[in-house]
Amino acid sequence: MTVTVTDETFEREVLRSELPVLVDFWAQWCPPCHMIAPMLDELARELDGIVAIRKVNTDEHPDLGARYRVMSLPTLMLFVDGEPVQALVGARPKARLLKELEDALSR
Predict the structure, then answer these.
(1) Which of 19, 27, 30, 89 is catalytic?
(2) pTM higher than 0.90, yes or no?
(3) What SUPFAM superfamilies does its record include (predicted)?
(4) Which of 47, 58, 81, 107 is the most buried (most CB within 10 A)?
(5) In a 10 Å sphere around its CB, with 0-12 CB exposed, 13-18 middle and 19+ buried, how is residue 73 labelled?
């Protein structure tokens, strides 16, 4: 299951995570965000212990979106050791997302 993070929990859940973290910046009004939500829940189960999946509602926490220059939704941002290493904008199929994660983590 994906975990929702807030302004208060972002540092602990994302920046200080021992695992790489894929953050889904989304909003309630965003249809593509809803399209990928079930796939991200699947990935959270499949990648448990390998990559953490976290969600940020940008309407409720606009400062986080602004801090990481999120301009379009959904934006999936991969953090490694507290640093953003890749941003993926827009919905995509699960296989493509897995390949992009694999590529980014193997650098």
Answers:
(1) 30
(2) yes
(3) Thioredoxin-like
(4) 58
(5) buried
- The DSSP code for 59 is T
Task: Work out how many domains the chain is built from and give that number.
Answer: 1
Among this protein's residues, is 30 annotated catalytic?
yes
72, HSE (Cβ side, Cα atoms, 13 Å) = 6
What's the pLDDT tens digit per position in 32-89?
Answer: 999 999 999 999 999 999 999 999 999 999 999 999 999 999 999 999 999 999 999 9
Q: Given 5, 14, 33, 40, which residue is catalytic?
A: 33
Q: Could you say which DSSP state residue 73 is in?
A: S
Range of the domain at 100: 3-106
Look up residue 13 and give its DSSP letter: I
